[in-house]
TrEMBL record:
GO terms for molecular function: antioxidant activity; oxidoreductase activity. It comes from Pseudoneobacillus rhizosphaerae. It comes from the Bacteria. The keyword Cell wall biogenesis/degradation does not apply. The lineage of its organism: Bacteria, Bacillati, Bacillota, Bacilli, Bacillales. The keyword Disulfide bond applies. Gene3D superfamilies: Glutaredoxin (3.40.30.10). This is Alkyl hydroperoxide reductase subunit C/ Thiol specific antioxidant domain-containing protein. Residues 15-57 form the Alkyl hydroperoxide reductase subunit C/ Thiol specific antioxidant domain. InterPro entries: AhpC/TSA, Thioredoxin-like_sf.
Length: 57
């Protein structure tokens, strides 16, 4: 791979998700907040992502 390549891993059953941070909408605060996976360590969490949320079909 060259320095501009990106490496993506395919999710596997029973595999731990890599640590990450991302922006998310907080419905209580009515604002965009930064979340980190490490903040949920030891808790149940469902990661749900759908890339076409705000695109026109």
């Amino acid at each position: 791979m060259n320095e501009n390549s990106q490496h993506f891993e395919v999710a596997q059953p029973d595999a731990k998700a890599p640590l990450f941070h991302a922006e998310a909408y907080n419905n209580i605060e009515k604002s965009i907040v930064e979340i980190q996976l490490k903040d949920y360590r030891g808790k149940w969490i469902v990661l749900f992502f759908y890339p076409s949320n705000f695109t026109f079909v």
